[in-house]
Amino acid sequence: DTAVSQTPKYLVTQMGNDKSIKCEQNLGHDTMYWYKQDSKKFLKIMFSYNNKELIINETVPNRFSPKSPDKAHLNLHINSLELGDSAVYFCASSRTEQETQYFGPGTRLLVL
Amino acid sequence: QKEVEQDPGPLSVPEGAIVSLNCTYSNSAFQYFMWYRQYSRKGPELLMYTYSSGNKEDGRFTAQVDKSSKYISLFIRDSQPSDSATYLCAMSARTGGFKTIFGAGTRLFVKA
Question: Three-state DSSP class for A103?
Answer without folding.
Answer: strand
